[in-house]
């Protein structure tokens, strides 16, 4: 009995399939590196600032976004997937963050903020809030936000600088710039 090789069956992948698989693999690797950096950043910030929660609010469309990462002191503070109050974050607020605004609120009950914003913060158990923009060349990629959920907090200049440094680190990472 003789076995003849069949030119119709070639177990090695063709060039196009191999290139397609390599692109998918490269994309997955970049996302894994990006996600690991964000997870590490939010965890380190929460521990350093001694807060209940640090989140990344990612903008996926014109001022529409959601919490895509969080680091928590307790699972009861989870807001993962939260999209925020659509009528609170508008072009006016976006313009402020695009200009580099940092917003530190020591106590939402005493701060002069829009009632919509106060109601939203209450709904996600926030008592004190520190938000910094993540700005990439394309614009506002997201917000890095620290929350005290149980007590007010007087944010220090070093707290603000730590958050800004973390946001800048994220904003300059190649895996984020390409996402």
From TrEMBL:
Domain annotation Phytochrome chromophore attachment site: ranges: 33-169
Gene3D superfamilies (UniProt xref): 3.30.450.40
Highest taxon, organism lineage: Bacteria
Pfam family, one: GAF
Protein name: GAF domain-containing protein
């Amino acid at each position: 009995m003789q076995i003849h090789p069949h030119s119709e069956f070639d177990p090695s992948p063709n060039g196009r399939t191999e290139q397609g698989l390599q692109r998918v693999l490269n994309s997955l690797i970049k996302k894994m590196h990006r996600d690991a950096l964000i997870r590490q950043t939010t965890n380190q910030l929460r521990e350093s600032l001694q807060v209940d929660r640090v989140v990344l609010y990612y903008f996926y469309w014109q001022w529409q976004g959601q919490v895509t990462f969080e680091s928590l002191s307790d699972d009861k503070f989870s807001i993962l997937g939260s999209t925020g109050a659509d009528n609170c974050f508008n072009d006016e607020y976006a313009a402020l963050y695009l200009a580099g605004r940092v917003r530190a609120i020591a106590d939402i009950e005493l701060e002069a903020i829009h009632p919509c914003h106060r109601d939203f913060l209450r709904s996600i158990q926030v008592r004190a809030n520190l938000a910094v923009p993540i700005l990439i060349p394309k614009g506002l990629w997201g917000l890095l936000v620290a929350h005290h959920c149980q007590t007010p907090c007087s944010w220090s200049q070093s707290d603000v600088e730590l958050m800004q440094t973390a946001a800048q680190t994220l904003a300059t990472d190649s895996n984020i710039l390409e996402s």
